[in-house]
Specification:
This protein is an alpha+beta fold. The protein has one helix and two strands. It has one domain (14-66).
Amino acid sequence: MANETLERWMPSNLAELRDAVQEMVRGAFEGGEGDLEAIYVDVRDLALVKQTLTDGSTVLNVVVRENK
């Protein structure tokens, strides 16, 4: 099976991730794919993780684990 990377994104925050997914959907429709359920996601799972830093502040991280 041949693979071709059509475009690559490197989001650094949730807003950029959302924009990247919207661009993927738009690109799929422009490429002739009309059924989003026919586009598969090669991800094991997604998680929203709250992390407490040493200074007591908290951050939220989106963690993506890939299929292996």
